[in-house]
Amino acid sequence: MLVPVSYNIRNLVVRRTTTLMTALGVGLTVSVLVGIGTLVEGLRTSLEVGGDPLNLIVMRQGSTAELVSVVSREDFEQLKFAPGIATDGGEPLISHEVLTVVNLPLRADPESVSNITLRGLSPVGTRMRPGVRLTEGRWFETGRREVTVGTAVNAKRAGTSVGDMLYFGRGDWEVVGVFETDQGAFNSEIWADGNLAAADLGRGSMRSSILIRAQDEAAAKALTGLVADDQRLTLEAERESEYYAKQMVSAGPVQGLGALIAVIMAVGSCFAAMNTMFAAVANRAREVGILRLLGFSRVSILTSFMLESLLLSVVGGLLGCLMVAPLHGFEGRIGNFTTFAETSFQFQLTPQYVVGGMVFAAVMGVVGGFIPSWLAARKSVLGSLGAL
Amino acid sequence: MNASFAVELRGVLKEYVRAEYSVRALDNISLDIKAGEFFCLMGPSGSGKSTLLHLVAGIDKPTDGRVSVLGQDLSELTDRELARWRSENIGYVFQTFNLIPVLTALENVELPLLLTGLRRKDRLQRARTALEIVGLADRLDHRPQQLSGGQEQRVAIARALVTDPSIILADEPTGELDAAAADDVLSILKILNQRHGKTIIMVTHDPRARSYARKSSYLDKGLLGPMPGEA
Predict the structure, then answer these.
(1) Min CA distance, B68 vs chain A (Å)?
(2) Is B197 exposed, middle or buried, given 0-12, 13-18 or 19+ CB atoms closer than 10 A?
């Protein structure tokens, strides 16, 4: 039979200052872990949604990102009528795209300037991203110096409202609309007519990549093989979704550093829990003796103190999750080391990270509480009562 | 082994061995205490009185000799069996009450019943009855720090008797109490002995407490003998 849980709860309440300080330590550790998790989850969502499963992105062999890839018009023409490409109204869904970065200041702090991705697309390019929709104004028109900006750009960057003029390349470009995706990386981009943008940027017939929509899964595989096998092209194709998943590399150092900090803090929190439980066991040695004298077994005593440590850490875990909760939905920006541009994302506190944080807290409680609980349980009745 | 004896000690020796010396707490003790007896054990501090109680309660083991309680040779029981046997047969009252401070009087008394398999409703009913017997029916929800010393000791007695044990061991039960509270506690022990047939084994320094017992012995330097002046 177990010692009643009310005994443990009331002991935690009686030692409320110690309980709170220890729980806070555990909570801070959990908040670091879960906080980093919300950031990574936000980035993952942002970049994953950027890709369609049937879209293939074609780049120069060895290129890790569109920004450093070069694909000529001849390459584009050779692929344009390849078998397996989906069509829309008889028009093949293939877009020859150019990518670069432009400097734009923040709305809130005009002195702060950073790189924003500018994408020039073929006319079908916008239709090849079905998750993309206009929220304001209209799409840019082919042959006109117009841009449509992503919502994240529009929200944060100065001079990106509909009707504003942006200066890049050889002159001014008019902002004619705002688009959004489901938190995709495209929200952090500016889109324009591909040919005009390439000319303005002095790219001639060279672009950065080709986007192809395959008819189906089999066609996607066949097109990937075709690009790889054609010796004239020296190109390679991969799923757009996989390409964006690889961009998660920018989150890697953050995730690694966060995990390292959380582990270091976890060691400290384990010792804090251990210290608290040592004090609890020392203060209640006689009570342990009484419980043993009344007939409670060593296992009951061990379980009781372990449960108390677990309760302590669970309170800490809840505190940690509460500390992170305000981050949910908060919009952040991170530099992408592959594209040298900025990606906007929203912190995402998912149930998985909450559960993970609670489990992490529980593990700290169990690890920190075991030795003191074990020492309490193995003491003799007389030893606990102080008769020895 | 005689069934009419609650406690039988035969040639009991207890030595505490430390690194450089050993202390003989009990030296070849043989003692019989009848069932239903109110037995008082007196003696100076350090004479081995509490050690003898610990052996009877099965929370310590003799170095040599045999301890039999209610017909059970305690050396034959494992730790787990001993814990169960103790919870069913022994009630223990301490000098310093030893209540759990975060639990109410009712919860403290209910504690030993958690090991019995009784339903909660029955446990609480029995705990209330035990507190009524010791005159604390109006203090059920009080925590130990909200009670006087005498009341705390009465709660401890209620906790000792709630499982209806045959033997109640009382180690200096009046040592921390004033005269009036001490009389209350001793009267309750006497009632438990006379009306409820409990065997009471009480260790005390208090000559007045001895007057409540029907039989007494004196322990000095580990040796058992008659009360001084009564030999």
Answers:
(1) 18
(2) exposed
Residues 6+ apart with CB under 8 A from A264: none
* B158-168 pLDDT tens trace: 999 999 999 99
Of A191, A83, A101, whose CA–CA distance to A137 is shortest? A191
Query: Taking a C-beta distance cutoff of 8 angstroms, is the pair B82, B58 a contact?
Result: yes
Number of Cβ atoms within 10 Å of the Cβ of B22: 11
Confidence of residue A339 (pLDDT cuts 50, 70, 90): low
Choose the closest CB to A293 out of B50, B92, B107: B92
pTM over 0.90: no
Q: For residues A82 and B201, which has the higher predicted lDDT (pLDDT)?
A: B201
Interface test with B, best of A6, A12, A294 (most B CBs within 10 A): A294
CB-based contacts of A246: which residues, under 8 Å, 6+ apart? Answer: A64, A338
Do the domain assignments include residue B22? no
Candidate from B59, B80, B107 with C-beta closest to A293: B59
Crossing angle of helices B149-161 and B179-194, rounded to 10°: 20
C-alpha distance from A20 to closest chain B C-alpha (Å): 18
Segments in A192-297 forming alpha helices (H): 194-200, 217-229, 240-246, 252-283, 285-294
Domain hosting B128: range is: 37-62+78-225
Among the listed residues A250, A201, A231, A240, the one whose alpha carbon sits nearest the alpha carbon of residue A53: A240
Q: Helices then strands (H, E): number in chain A?
A: 12, 14
Does the distance separating the beta carbons of A295 and B115 come in below 8 Å?
A: yes
Whether the pLDDT of residue A269 is over 80: the answer is: no
Number of domains making up chain B: 1
Minimal C-alpha gap between A302 and chain B (Å): 15
Residue B110: which CATH number? 3.40.50.300
Q: Are B40 and B210 in contact (CB under 8 A)?
A: yes
The answer to whether residue B21 is domain-embedded is no
Exposed/middle/buried for A113, CB within 10 Å: 0-12, 13-18, 19+? middle
Instruction: Find which of A13, A293, A297, A379 to mutate to test the B interface (most B CBs within 10 Å of its CB).
Output: A293
pLDDT at A228: 87
In the block, tokens 């803090």 appear at A265
Among B92, B107, B115, beta carbon nearest to A296: B115
B198 CB near a chain A CB, below 8 Å?
Answer: no
Domain-embedded: residue B111: yes
Confidence band, pLDDT 50/70/90 cuts, at residue A246 = confident
Containing H/E element for A6?
A: helix A5-14
**Closest chain B residue to the Cα of A287, Cα to Cα:** B100
In a domain, B70, yes or no: no
* ipTM at complex level: 0.88
pLDDT tens digits, one per residue of B46-57 = 889 999 999 999
Check CB contact under 8 Å for B86 and A295.
Answer: yes
d(CA A290, CA B96): 12
Element (H, E) at A318: helix A298-324
Which pair of structure tokens corresponds to residue A2?
A: 């177990």
Identify the pLDDT of residue A136.
94
